[in-house]
Amino acid sequence: MQNHVLRFFTRLTAVLTVICLLLTACGRSATRHEKGDHGYIPVSASPISVKGISAKAYFIYDCAAKVFVAIHGADGLIYPASTTKLLTALYALTLLDPAETVTPGDELSLVGEGSSIAYVKQSHTLTVEMLVQGMMIPSGNDAAYALAAAGGKKLDASLSGVAAVERFMEGMNEYAVSLGLCSSSFTVPDGLAGEEHYSSLEDMAIVAKLAFENELIRTYGGMAKADVVYESGHTNTWVNTNLLLDETGGYYDSRVLSGKTGSLEGWYNVIFLAEEDGERYIVGVFGSSGKEARFADGIRIMDAIEERDRSGNA
């Protein structure tokens, strides 16, 4: 009986959290970047028209022209969920060498119930590079906490794992501001958080642009699957949460080169790097109606880019 009551209240808490996130994102406004601001990205005078998608907000960034060729929902806040891990990886790699080894500690107690995991345990030892891989492929929240703790201990070696994560997050928010982010607050390294963990389309475009310029992040974000061996000898198989990369599935899109998903009820997201007709784009999809809807939305956006290119070359 007690277990049934506990499960009921756990589910009720999760539902209330989702409602709060939806109300918060709808009620707050993002600070838009203005020309001359650090991180400012101009919007094309001839935007691409995208129809028939469920996402609350989306953007298309043209990597060559360095402009948004489409952006919808830029005035509101978004809940980034696990797309946060792009920034976590970027900041961690400013503190840690990819070849350094990490043995997780009490920070793993912070991994939330229902998390996507890479199966990283306190008995395991992994390199920093492999923890990045564990975040990008299976979207491991355990890998995110292990990496954050390692980074926090670089800033203060006296800290426990839990305290080091808090120190890391302080530094990550300072790092975000230094990149030009102006409408974001990040409270946890994995993105599984409450209403005080938020961002905007413009801010996440800045993060994605830098992340996909990083070879490690781009490479692992583009792997559909990987068989891995930890430094401690433990073995694992990681499968990417991004179905756009799965050649055996119904949402595979050969135009997609790399990416990162994010999931919370009401906020199903995907950011990806893609190539169409020799040109590269970064697409951000936020708040799709379901886990698979975000991939369908991403494909429709890529089709809209293809249609624009075909019409322009006709």
How does this model look, in words?
This protein is an alpha+beta fold and 314 residues long. The protein has a single domain, classed as Beta-lactamase (3-Layer(aba) Sandwich), CATH 3.40.710.10. It is 39% helix and 18% strand. The protein is built from eight helices and nine strands. It has helices spanning 2-27, 85-95, 128-136, 141-155, 161-179, 201-213, 215-221, 293-313; strands spanning 57-62, 67-72, 101-102, 126-127, 225-229, 235-239, 256-264, 267-276, 279-288. α2 (85-95) packs across α5 and α2 crosses α6 (201-213). The chain is globular.
Short description:
By secondary structure, the chain is α+β, with helices and mostly antiparallel strands. It has eight helices and nine strands. The chain has one domain: DD-peptidase/beta-lactamase superfamily (Beta-lactamase, 3-Layer(aba) Sandwich), CATH 3.40.710.10.
Structural descriptors:
single chain, 314 residues, alpha+beta, Beta-lactamase, 5-stranded antiparallel beta sheet, two-stranded antiparallel ribbon, 8 helices, 9 strands, 39% helix, globular, disordered N terminus
CATH architecture: 3-Layer(aba) Sandwich
Structural class: alpha+beta
Number of strands: 9
Question: What's the level 1 CATH class?
Answer: Alpha Beta
What is the CATH superfamily classification?
DD-peptidase/beta-lactamase superfamily
Return the domain count: 1
Q: Quickly count the helices.
A: 8
Uncertain residue ranges: 1-26
Helix residue percentage: 25-40%
Task: Report on the biggest sheet.
Answer: 5 strands, antiparallel
Enter the CATH topology name: Beta-lactamase
Determine the strand fraction and express it as a percent band: 15-25%
The largest beta-sheet arranges its strands as: 2-1-9-8-7
Measured distance between first and last alpha carbons? 68 Å
Instruction: Output mean pLDDT.
Output: 91
Question: Roughly how many Å is the radius of gyration?
Answer: 19 Å
Which outline best applies?
Answer: globular
User: What is the H/E order?
Assistant: HEEHEEHHHHHEEEEEH
